[in-house]
Structures are given as structure tokens and as C-alpha cells.
């Protein structure tokens, strides 16, 4: 019989490709470091549980997550909160006023802790990059519009 029609049960095809590791430095806030450690612990628990019930697909997913979060933990560079609030820096909260007079406040954080809907922006995002190093009163072009920095904390 042709080998193409025989199911191989050696498990070699179970491995999933690794999650992409960003090339930028893994800067994190204290909260971001805690989140990475929580995600690593959850992935480790999921791996143990999947191994216990011999669920090969779940083992592959959990093992991939353990590798990702272990790498992110090992490469994490903890950045203390900024003491100087004269410029937008990593870890700062910045309030902007948009052209339509809406105000929004974002905290500049690490890649794994960013959630724009929750008010956190990755330091590598275009908006954060445009705001970094700027001061209150500066006008900044972002996303085809202009925003004014009204507060930094």
C-alpha cells in the first residue's frame, strides 16, 4: 500500500510552529512582568493537564505557549515608572485631545500588556512612537490627524 495512505502515529506531526517572538526589546512594566508570569503559569498548568489526559493537540498548543511565555519571561526588561513627567516616556500615562475635542488617556506599556480598548498602548505602536519624547502642549500627527498632549502622569 502507498505510504501516503497509511496513518503514522509517531506524533511527529503534532508540534505546532512557535509563536512569533517580536524583534524589539521586551520592555515591561511591573504589571506586565506579573502578567507574563501568570501567563507562563497558566500555560504550564494547561500543559500538565493535557499531558495527564494524553490530549496531543492540547499538549502541542500548551507546549507552544509555554515556550513563548518562557522566552518572554527570560527576555523581559523591567522598566521602572518614570519619575519625570515632563515628556512622554515608557510607563507614562498621556492624555491627548483629538481634533473632535475627545480626550483619551493611554499608558505606554510593553507589547504583551497592550490593550488599546483598556487604555494601554504598546511602546512600538505608531501612536506611542509619535508621542514618545513629546511634552504637554505639543501637537502630534497620528493616523492622519493631529492630537494635542494635554497631560502626562
Question: Strands, helices and their partners?
Answer:
Layout: E1 26-28, H1 30-52, H2 56-75, E2 76-78, E3 93-98, E4 103-109, E5 120-122, H3 126-131, E6 139-142, E7 145-152
Parallel strand pairs: 1-2, 4-5
Antiparallel strand pairs: 3-4, 3-7, 6-7
Structure notes:
- This protein has 153 residues and is an alpha/beta fold.
- The chain has two domains: 20-78; 93-152, Chitinase A, domain 3 (Roll), CATH 3.10.50.30.
- Helices cover 32% and strands 22% of the residues.
- The chain is built from three helices and seven strands.
- It has helices at 30-52, 56-75, 126-131; strands at 26-28, 76-78, 93-98, 103-109, 120-122, 139-142, 145-152.
- The strands form two sheets. It has a five-stranded mixed β-sheet with strand order 5-4-3-7-6. A two-stranded parallel sheet has the order 1-2.
- A hairpin with a 4-residue loop joins strand 3 and strand 4 (103-109).
- The longest helix is centred in the first third of the chain and has 23 residues, at 30-52.
- It is elongated.
- The N and C termini lie far apart (70 Å).
- Residues 3-13 have low confidence and may be disordered.
Key descriptive features of the protein:
153 residues; alpha/beta; Chitinase A, domain 3; 2 domains; five-stranded mixed sheet; two-stranded parallel ribbon; 7 strands; 32% helix; elongated; disordered N terminus
